[in-house]
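= Tokenised fold =
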Amino acid sequence: MIVGLASLLFVLIWSTGFIVARATVPHATPELILAVRLALTTALLGGAAFHARQALPRGRRLGLHLAAGAMLHGFYLTLSWWAVNNGMPAGVMALLGSLQPLMVAAASVAFLGDRLPQRAWVGLAAAIIGVGCVLLPAIERSGTGSIAVGPAVAAVFAVLSMAGGTLIQRGSIAGDGIAISGAVQNGGGAMIAIAATLFVGDYRWDGSPMLWIGLAWSVLALSTAGLSLLVWLVRHQGPTRMSMLLLLVPPLAAVEAWLLFGERLGPVQLVGFALALGGVMLGRSTRPARDRDIAEPA
């Protein structure tokens, strides 16, 4: 029951990331928004960890937390936002992101000893096809023939980074508290975002109410609540089952964009939403078998 509610809440929160990005990017540079967002989240979760007396990880565990945060929060967000801001159609970026659960599933089988049943693979394939149907109108509007090499490479590395950061959560760091884990990992992501901001050299920030509202939601909901739920779900369900939830994010974001911005939501998208939902439910209906104890990914 608790896991089901946590899964539902995670999908609802995570789907708003598309909406927040669309609302805030016109008012500030993406890299600066992410740097401020991740730094504030680090401070907030650090305070929560201090209050809960959660000890700071040491040695190799600290390095793994920082690496996970750099990949999951830093590289994934900065590279994907940069790609979209430099010509990558948002629909194509979302479609590439939908391949992340497939990457996690394959890596879990290869490196963590998971053995996924056939219906899990079938459900995963059906959900990816459903996401493609949902995103098809957006891809057709934007086209794919004019995508530059730089944004395309950045988008691929963004998805790979998120997959890697998700897998690391199942290593030896899984025993650390959620608050201190989130603080250190957001700190790792903040360092990447700050470096990206300095590299780009654009510090546009108009201070509009929409920017501050979007930043507040990003810190409190997306980075603090959403990413904490992501880590908790990975630890309790495994990286593959958690990653399948991400396939519901683009369809739900399409519904939110329809409600908030009046974007088109046609029959093909509705069929795609149903296919994605059915595929995720099928893929998550069984737990993967394990040949051995969890092996820490390299």
In short: The chain has one domain: 2-290. Residues 290-298 have pLDDT under 50 and may be disordered. The chain is about 75% helix and 0% strand.
